[in-house]
Amino acid sequence: ELPTIEDLANASQDKVLSLWQGLGYYSRAINLHQCAQDIVFNRQGEFPSEKSELKTLKGVGEYIASAIASMAFDQICVAMDGNAYRVYSRYLGVDTPINSPSTIRLLTQKAQDLIDIKRPGDFNQAIMDLGA
């Protein structure tokens, strides 16, 4: 019903929320709507291509920015979420809690060393699929 980013940006929030109904996490719908408006009205319809710029979009944090940058723009960025931490900790034989700051730093660094620099998006997607 909203096939383009312009259609989404110009839709009312009520329309967006009604289309999202039943999916849960309504803040995601609101963030998606605000991102579309930012891109259309403030960025002349140009989606940011750099990870640092992606993080300026509403609701886009480190993980999503890394995923988008690697998958859409072939940037060498490791997308690390809870599933990725579990995959890497098992692969690397790390037996410390994955939510400790030192383990997160270690796993993120090791993931940087492992990422396929020729296909970073495919690599991140494979880790996501494996973690799921």
Automatic annotation (TrEMBL):
<feature type="domain" description="HhH-GPD">
    <location>
        <begin position="1"/>
        <end position="132"/>
    </location>
</feature>
<keyword id="KW-0326">Glycosidase</keyword>
<dbReference type="GO" id="GO:0032357">
    <property type="term" value="F:oxidized purine DNA binding"/>
</dbReference>
<dbReference type="InterPro" id="IPR003265">
    <property type="entry name" value="HhH-GPD_domain"/>
</dbReference>
<dbReference type="InterPro" id="IPR044298">
    <property type="entry name" value="MIG/MutY"/>
</dbReference>
<dbReference type="InterPro" id="IPR011257">
    <property type="entry name" value="DNA_glycosylase"/>
</dbReference>
<keyword id="KW-0234">DNA repair</keyword>
<protein>
    <recommendedName>
        <fullName>HhH-GPD domain-containing protein</fullName>
    </recommendedName>
</protein>
<keyword id="KW-0227">DNA damage</keyword>
<dbReference type="GO" id="GO:0046872">
    <property type="term" value="F:metal ion binding"/>
</dbReference>
<keyword id="KW-0408">Iron</keyword>
<keyword id="KW-0411">Iron-sulfur</keyword>
<dbReference type="GO" id="GO:0006284">
    <property type="term" value="P:base-excision repair"/>
</dbReference>
<dbReference type="GO" id="GO:0051536">
    <property type="term" value="F:iron-sulfur cluster binding"/>
</dbReference>
<dbReference type="GO" id="GO:0000701">
    <property type="term" value="F:purine-specific mismatch base pair DNA N-glycosylase activity"/>
</dbReference>
<comment type="similarity">
    <text>Belongs to the Nth/MutY family.</text>
</comment>
<dbReference type="GO" id="GO:0006298">
    <property type="term" value="P:mismatch repair"/>
</dbReference>
<keyword id="KW-0378">Hydrolase</keyword>
<dbReference type="GO" id="GO:0035485">
    <property type="term" value="F:adenine/guanine mispair binding"/>
</dbReference>
<dbReference type="InterPro" id="IPR023170">
    <property type="entry name" value="HhH_base_excis_C"/>
</dbReference>
<keyword id="KW-0479">Metal-binding</keyword>
<dbReference type="GO" id="GO:0034039">
    <property type="term" value="F:8-oxo-7,8-dihydroguanine DNA N-glycosylase activity"/>
</dbReference>
<dbReference type="Pfam" id="PF00730">
    <property type="entry name" value="HhH-GPD"/>
</dbReference>
